[in-house]
Design brief:
Number of strands of chain A: 10
Number of helices of chain A: 13
Helix content of chain A: 40-55%
Number of domains of chain A: 1
Distance between the termini of chain B: 28 Å
Shape of chain A: globular
CATH architecture of the largest domain in chain B: Alpha-Beta Complex
Largest sheet of chain B: 6 strands, mixed
CATH architecture of chain A: Alpha-Beta Complex
Radius of gyration of chain A: 18 Å
CATH class of the largest domain in chain B: Alpha Beta
CATH superfamily of the largest domain in chain B: 2-enoyl-CoA Hydratase, Chain A, domain 1
Distance between the termini of chain A: 51 Å
CATH topology of chain A: 2-enoyl-CoA Hydratase, Chain A, domain 1
Number of strands of chain B: 10
Oligomer: heterodimer
Chain lengths: ~270, ~260
């Protein structure tokens, strides 16, 4: 494959020694989700799940970000923004299938979080089984910045992966959680130098790929039942709440202010 | 007898039938249904068989009726063909049928499942009556049996929207008895069938008959029916053996007489 082609593709996949590497590839947009990327990622995960050669998956981003969540400036979204959008259905179609697939597929998924993970991009990392994180990375629950509620499973994952107290604080404040703090809270497995993220994740994945993968699969199944038993129900509930938030004046104002790069003037309606 | 669309095996007192048209997710065509009914009736007559397990594959119990086969039918032709006569014979099987389902259990597959007596489902099971999506309705008992099991409102939702439900939803609704990991659904069903096979076959037969009576009869009629079956069992050797063994604090050995 020529370099030129590679740079045009929004998603790159590669299978090597039992490890499927999936790379979000919109580096100029911090790998934020437009429809092309979202649906290609859904398909790629499905294929990796089916492919018997793939024992472990590594999910990463190219450039300086891991994934900045929904691309608020992507065309399909701005079209939907024209009227009051149905964010609930958008989430059901775009993100919930991704999160469900990552959790339910019985192969370990290692997130190589190479840079900022925000909004649905943070959820994407939370839904993985391991988080190997670059030291300059931060996680951001950016939803409330534009008058939305956390979605894509983050209300579910955060309280369980770190703790409810800090989780709620992060959700309302939309402040950055640094890699160092994320490690201290137990949200991530390992923090490494920026240049080492992918190597470290690959090393782990290659080791796992040689392990008793059926036992890993059954362990993930039991773990899901113990820790995330009602995932689908909660994803659906989040989608309903986002539907409500998406109809609010605050959301309209939030997006407008974001695009106009000014401080939003919220009314609580 | 040799079959093309099903696999029939005997494991001790348990007769096992597996639907086997993997290339079409076990779609139920006339030939398969004919073979299934023959196999079921053969087990029903065979004294050494005391319970039956009906299953499909991990991927699909049965994804529905064979649409190709019926797309050109007319009202008259389909009525005269009367395929549902075969289905009525499934209903008349006297021995208990434990159904082991996984994957797709849709349309006719779901209706066939509901003809069975106990249902073990894998975690990956999806059940539904999607007939509405192709402009028809369930025709092998779905509107009646589903409604009796899950109630009017949930049945309406499933039948009118055509959406399928998960194994866990089906468990909550009482549509299946047990949900187990996919690797174990068939074993679990067989274990249940073996458990039943240890009981008195006469009592099992009359018990199944009495429970099914509750579908059709008023309460007083059903109670009367139950009582007559109860009295009748006192003419069996198994009743004598069962009660004697109980009093002597030992396990009974039932002869089926």
């Amino acid at each position: 494959m020529s370099k030129e082609n590679e740079s045009e593709k929004v998603l790159l996949t590669e299978i090597k020694d039992g490890v499927g590497v999936v790379t979000l590839n919109r580096p100029d947009k911090l790998n934020s989700f437009n429809d092309e990327l979202t649906f290609q990622l859904q398909d790629a995960l499905k294929e990796m799940e089916k492919n018997k050669e793939v024992k472990v998956i590594v999910l990463t981003g190219s450039g300086r970000g891991f994934c900045a969540g929904q691309d608020l400036q992507s065309r399909s979204i701005s079209q939907e923004m024209g009227e009051r959008p149905s964010l609930g259905d958008s989430i059901r179609r775009r993100y919930n299938p991704l999160i469900t697939k990552l959790r339910r597929m019985e192969k370990p998924v290692v997130a190589a979080v190479n840079g900022v993970a925000a909004g649905a991009g943070a959820s994407l990392a939370y839904a993985c089984d391991y988080r190997i994180v670059a030291e300059s990375t931060s996680f951001i629950q950016s939803f409330t910045k534009v008058g939305l509620v956390p979605d894509s499973g983050s209300t579910f994952f955060l309280p369980r992966l770190l703790n409810p107290t800090k989780a709620f604080e992060l959700m309302l404040s939309a402040e950055k959680l640094s890699a160092k703090d994320a490690l201290a809270y137990g949200l991530v497995n390992q923090v490494v130098a920026d240049s080492e993220v992918l190597n470290t994740a690959m090393e782990l994945a290659l080791k796992l790929a040689k392990g008793p993968t059926k036992a890993y699969a059954l362990t993930k199944r039991a773990f899901n039942k113990a820790v995330f038993p009602d995932l689908e129900e909660l994803l659906e509930y989040e989608a309903s709440l986002q539907e409500i938030a998406g109809r609010s004046d605050d959301f309209q104002e939030g997006v407008k202010a974001f695009v106009e790069k000014r401080t939003p003037a919220y009314t609580g309606k | 007898m040799t079959y093309k669309n099903i696999i029939v095996e005997e494991e001790g007192a348990v007769g096992v039938i597996a639907l086997n048209r993997p290339q079409v997710l076990n779609a139920l065509n006339h030939e398969l249904m004919g073979e299934l009914v023959s196999a079921l009736e053969e087990f029903d007559r065979k004294e050494s068989i005391r319970s039956i397990v009906l299953t499909g594959s991990e991927r699909a119990f049965a994804a529905g009726a064979d649409i190709k086969e019926m797309s050109d039918e007319t009202t008259i032709s389909i009525m005269l063909r009367d395929n549902f006569a075969t289905w009525d014979r499934v209903r008349n099987i006297k021995k208990p049928i434990v159904c082991a389902v996984s994957g797709f259990v849709l349309g006719g597959g779901c209706e066939l499942m509901m003809n069975c007596d106990i249902i073990v489902a894998s975690e990956t099971t999806q059940l539904g009556q999607p007939e509405i999506n192709i402009g028809v309705i369930p025709g092998a008992g779905g509107t009646q049996r589903l409604t009796r099991v899950v109630g009017k409102h949930k049945a309406m939702e499933m039948i009118l929207t055509g959406k399928s439900i998960t194994a866990h939803e089906a468990l909550e609704l009482g549509l299946v008895n047990k949900v187990v990991p996919v690797e174990l659904f068939l074993e679990e069903a067989k274990a249940m069938a073996r458990e039943i096979a240890k009981k008195s076959p006469v009592a099992v037969r009359l018990a199944k008959e009495a429970v099914l009576k509750s579908y059709d009869a008023s309460l007083s009629e059903g109670l009367l029916f139950e009582r007559k079956n109860f009295y009748m069992l006192f003419s069996s050797e198994d009743q004598k053996e069962g009660m004697k063994a109980f009093l002597e604090k030992r396990q009974p050995t039932f002869s089926g007489r």
